Amino acid sequence: MMRTVTFFTRSNCPLCESAWFVVQKLRSRVPFDLQRVDITEPCNERWYALYVNDIPVVHIDGREVFKHRVSERALRERLEDDARPDASPNSTQNDA
Question: 40-56, pLDDT tens digit by residue?
């Protein structure tokens, strides 16, 4: 089953640009579906309310796994670890 990574962002966000680069770079080697959500679009009020001060935010299969920064190694590990049936959930990584 293909994993889904959702990337929450907005324009004029330098942290988002850096994190997006990391996600795109990893995607060239590890297959996963990728959704990009601009929290400032009118249809995304829910995400804006949740993440206005925390973007970028990354979810894997609907579960929040990163805020503010994304480490390529940590994202790869999360995608691989979370794919195992016996994987235990970890807390969100804010500084990975």
Answer: 999 999 999 999 999 99
